[in-house]
Amino acid sequence: MTAYINNQDTTRRWAKWQLSDWDSNPKHMSLWSLFQRVSAAIAFAAITPVFIALFLAVKISSKGPFIYKQTRPGLNGTSFTAFKIRTMRTGADKDKKRARRVDANDPMITPVGRILRDLKLDELPQLLNVIKGDMALVGPRPIAPALQSELEKNIPGFGRRLSVKPGLTSLAQVCLFDNEADDKVIDDWTTRFEAELDYIYRKSVAYDLVIIGLTAAFLVKKIARRLPKKLLIAIPLAALLLLTACSERLPTRSFTRADTSLEKEIRAYGDREVPAIVEIEPVSIPIENSVAQDPVYRVGSGDLLAINVFGEEGLNDLRVSVDGEGYIQVPFLERIPVAGQSVAEIQSALKEGFSRQFRNPWVVVEIEEHRSRPVYLVGQFNKPGVVYMQGPTNLLQAVSMASGMSENAHLSGARLWRAGEIAAVDMNALLIDGRAAHNIYLESGDTIVVPSNSDNKAFVMGAVVRAGAVPFSNEPMTLLKALTQVGGPIKSTALLSQVRVIRTHSAVDGQLILVNAKDILKGRAPDLQLQPDDIVYVPDNWIENWNQVIRAVTPTLQLAGGALQPFVQVKFLKGD
Q: Across residues 105-128, what is the average pLDDT?
């Protein structure tokens, strides 16, 4: 049998919920947490007579303590002691298999315990855990450490459930129950985990209240089943029973929600108004610092100097090149260091040197060819090649030295490479929008690369058959098309609900996108259209943060001819 939520209006509202500004405020959520603890204390005091009655029932029906204590992993894996009313005979916990799963017909369950487990009343002492702050009213149910470890190994990202406090009740608690077969534990918890992820993602006060309401309706339904039929007619419980109709067994297919057909799958963790896009985080970083340039040209290796010692035969028309060590060779003086010196400084040094040979020599030095400070212009320039700076030179000046760019230039992909890395500058913003802040000064060895529109490509990494670059064509490139071109995801490992896309608008601006590709594959959401230079990562396990994505894609990306943009490197690799 399959579990459904039968109140269609409630379900539709639930499916559309977003995290409100109130819920995202830490102070407000702290108040909500305090309210839960106070409410738990009031409830605990109010049901004291119930505890007294249960104490007598448990003690009379079997030997052993009234309260059973268990160690459970809580928030962020921190262990705490959970309290329950004992429902099994003393010694039942010696069989470690029971920590994994307890069969409903287990002979070690006491007669009273069977009723308590059915009505979930054995968990009432966990109100004390809520009062202490170890648990919340709503959250993933705490489970045995051994089972937690087993499920983390078999269910991708299962440890994520420890990112919130465990709860006294949960959506899975009131609508999903264990199957009888022991070999279905992993499948059962996989389905439960989908519901828990939905809660973790949408966690809000409103969501908590709905689950608390469902729990109350669940208990009413359970109690009503044990009452005589005549009493049911006298008590107007029928309306309450319409609120929920959870089954006695967990479904073996995906977690579902009710609608007119009763077959449509419930939207899982990460759905929004447009379900495929789970989260878009814009990222930007400051522009590269433009260091003030020395207006005086300093000679370097490769420069060609013209030297004229007037009136001295053989010295009035010298042409000397600065060698790799920064020296020049001239008659009488042999090797003279000139690297890093201005023309005036070189001229003064030569005059002093020639004064030992000639009386009051008149020396003139000029730079005939500037070759020590190259800038490389690669790609869609009208005149690509190497240009040499003759003084302070900015980006616009370098582009003009190449007679501008061709019509086929992909300006959004234009990059300035400096010392083996992409500089934080947006050439498209400079050339198209006229944003002067990006017109930074160049340095010797800088490379300006302008790709062609015909070379546009995206990169697909991770749990796919053939990771690598995917070329664009005249047709739009989409996520599914890109996955197809790399052989598709590896079905046994790919976590399609957690696909990550790094979208580059420029070297300083981009977006980090989380996509639920399962929604796209099942036709519940439109396909995501990719843009040039997008990096798509299909994980094979739960991704806790974007740093994991960056470290995973970097080696393959470099092999595929791509590069991480500065907005990614600065925010993540260099420690944000």
A: 83
